[in-house]
């Protein structure tokens, strides 16, 4: 979902070495997220993954201090929160950022569905865009 015309999120991809890229389905701006949510992405416990973000900067103005805030919840409780400074960007693009690798927890207590909300803001705290998706941690990869 785009909040301003200064920023357009083009894609969010989950990358796991040795596995095909998993593309997060983004709600079209005119949908506003009203459609049914897609099924969660399935990830094996203990996997190391990276998130790849692709975006463009609109013709309104250059972006300074772009940051990405990632919040994860499980059964309504926040279990992860990180804020990553992405930098300054001129109008144009597309730009691609690959976030640092993360490792999923291991064990039956970690196996569940997690909701993720990613928010983009500039140095002034102006909300530029957001996306949400879910993933499920399982014992094994789906067949």
From TrEMBL:
<dbReference type="Pfam" id="PF02115">
    <property type="entry name" value="Rho_GDI"/>
</dbReference>
<keyword id="KW-0963">Cytoplasm</keyword>
<dbReference type="GO" id="GO:0005094">
    <property type="term" value="F:Rho GDP-dissociation inhibitor activity"/>
</dbReference>
<dbReference type="InterPro" id="IPR024792">
    <property type="entry name" value="RhoGDI_dom_sf"/>
</dbReference>
<dbReference type="InterPro" id="IPR014756">
    <property type="entry name" value="Ig_E-set"/>
</dbReference>
<dbReference type="GO" id="GO:0016020">
    <property type="term" value="C:membrane"/>
</dbReference>
<protein>
    <submittedName>
        <fullName>Uncharacterized protein</fullName>
    </submittedName>
</protein>
<dbReference type="GO" id="GO:0005829">
    <property type="term" value="C:cytosol"/>
</dbReference>
<dbReference type="GO" id="GO:0007266">
    <property type="term" value="P:Rho protein signal transduction"/>
</dbReference>
<dbReference type="InterPro" id="IPR000406">
    <property type="entry name" value="Rho_GDI"/>
</dbReference>
């Amino acid at each position: 979902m785009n909040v301003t015309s200064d920023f357009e999120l083009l894609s969010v991809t989950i990358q796991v070495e040795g596995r095909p890229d998993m593309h997060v389905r983004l709600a079209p701006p005119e949908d506003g997220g009203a459609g049914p949510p897609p099924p969660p992405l399935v990830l094996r416990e203990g996997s190391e993954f990276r998130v790849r973000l692709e975006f463009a900067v609109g013709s309104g103005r250059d972006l300074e201090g772009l940051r990405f805030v990632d919040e994860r919840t499980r059964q309504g409780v926040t279990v992860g929160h990180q804020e990553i400074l992405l930098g300054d960007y001129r109008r144009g693009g597309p730009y691609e950022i690959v976030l640092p690798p993360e490792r999923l927890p291991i064990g039956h207590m970690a196996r569940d569905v997690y909701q993720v909300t990613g928010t983009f803001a500039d140095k002034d705290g102006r909300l530029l865009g957001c996306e949400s998706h879910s993933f499920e941690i399982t014992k094994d990869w789906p067949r």
